[in-house]
Amino acid sequence: MTTTAQLRHAPVARRRRFRRPSPGAFGRALVRSSVPLGAAAVVAFWFQGARPQATPAVLFADAGELCGLLASYLVCVLLVLVSRAPWTERVFGLDHLVGWHRSLGTTVILLVSTHVVLASIGGTFRDSRPLWAEVPHMLVTVPDLVEAWVGVGLFLVAGAASSRAARRFLRYEVWWGLHLTLYAGIYLGFWHQLTAGYHFVPDALARVAIILLYSAAGAAVFTWRIVRPLWRLRRHVFQIERVISETPRTTSVWLVGDHVEELGVRAGQFFLVKFLTFGHLVTAHPYSVSGVTDNGRIRFTIGHLGNHSSAVKRLRVGTHVLLEGPFGRFTSDRTRSERVLLIAGGAGVGPIRALAEELDSDGRDVVVLHRASTADELALGEEFGGALGDRYIPLVGRRKELGYDPLGHRNVLRLVPDIGTREVFLCGPPGLTGTVVRTCRRLRIPPESVHYEELSFS
Predict the structure, then answer these.
(1) Most Cβ neighbours (<10 Å): which of 10, 181, 200, 341?
(2) pLDDT given for residue 18 in this prediction
(3) Residues facing 423 on adjacent strands
(4) Number of Cβ atoms within 10 Å of the Cβ of 388
């Protein structure tokens, strides 16, 4: 009881932090303001062309038109967010961009569905037909509407495949393939706007504007996701040098290649990795760097979380590899403190290992907490111990057996009494991330001093 009371009320050492605005603050503010301003411009464009009649047919049709216009605009925003343009990735981080892509994707699907429903209801009032008769009539008489409905279907399928319930059962490769059909859906819906959109048919300038908007978004995707990676192949060709089993559920893959220094990779960043061999050709997966050497070698330490990552242990030496990146803002330049706490678990050990090495070599005071259920799951533990000595603290054991959570706020405060003076970097499965975030909140660590990234694109 005495120990518990002491821990509960133990003061957390703190020091005042003076933070300067980050270099990307202006860029973030610019993008965050420009997106809603663009949406407001779309609403203004719709209002300027809205019909003065107030009949039910016009009201439903115009409301559907507004939903369609907003969906078109947000589709272009979505494409830019996932184009992997270096500037946006550097300012926001790819994980934040993907998160916004998910949120806006849901909004687009709702807007597109609402557009279809309202336009159909407006048609029933206009033609005095029941809905089940009006829809076939519109498909026959409205230009490019059949193709647009196919596009809507592709949107709904991709949206359903991206739901949390579906992702539990779908393989990443299946989800990725379904997600790619969205490009076809966007293309099919685009032409319907030009040939049947009330605001575009009579206005040539409006047609030119929407064509330029879609062209710019498509060019961003084509440039940064296709042209740039292919252009890099001129100088950056990698192949597997070694495959090392670190633990029963973790494998390290060493790559060797030319001009690695030109990539500008930082500890904590990740690449989209595609192994050019059977079973890995379809998709590229995000894997964090766990080490970079001066002689052109890069190491990825990969946890066996799915079919793709589990199969890396069977890769052969000499297999060629395509790398796209580096991505991510989970880097040492985000800290303003000389003291850092790194927390790793599972597949998150890779970027934490690289960060520990970089921060320690910079003279920072680094402490590492390494969480694992059993001792044989402490991947790269020997490297941590050799570099940090007793500043590397393995936390081994299942919570049921231990009777407490090793990453709970009481235990973390006992192990790292000066945590209030440290910035926290954490990487691991969602459960670990949630636990550590709650722990930091209980210990009153400022949110801006807790750093983590999500590497999932699905």
Answers:
(1) 341
(2) 40
(3) 340
(4) 17
Residue 395's identity, in one-letter code, is L
Banded pLDDT at 76 (limits 50, 70, 90): very high
Measured in degrees and rounded to the nearest 5, phi and psi for residue 47 equal: -65, -40
Distance CA 413, CA 344 (A): 17
CA distance 276 to 205: 47
Q: What are the pLDDT digits (tens) for 338-352?
A: 999 999 988 889 999
Please tell me the distance from the alpha carbon of residue 82 to that of residue 89, in angstroms, as a whole number.
Answer: 9
For residue 457, name the pLDDT band (cuts at 50, 70, 90).
Answer: low
Strands 423-427 and 339-345: parallel
Rounded distance, CA 69 to CA 229, Å? 33
Query: Is residue 148 over pLDDT 60?
Result: yes
Segment 158-170 mean pLDDT: 78
pLDDT tens column, 345-393: 888 899 999 999 999 888 899 999 999 999 888 999 888 878 788 899 9
Does 109 or 175 have the greater pLDDT score? Answer: 109
Write out the H or E segment, with its range, that includes residue 162: none
Which one, of 442, 436, 443, 444, lies nearest residue 452 by Cα? Answer: 436
Measured distance CA(335)–CA(359) in Å, rounded: 10
Which residues fall within 8 angstroms of residue 422, CB to CB, at 6 or more apart? Answer: 337, 339, 340, 341, 365, 367, 416, 449
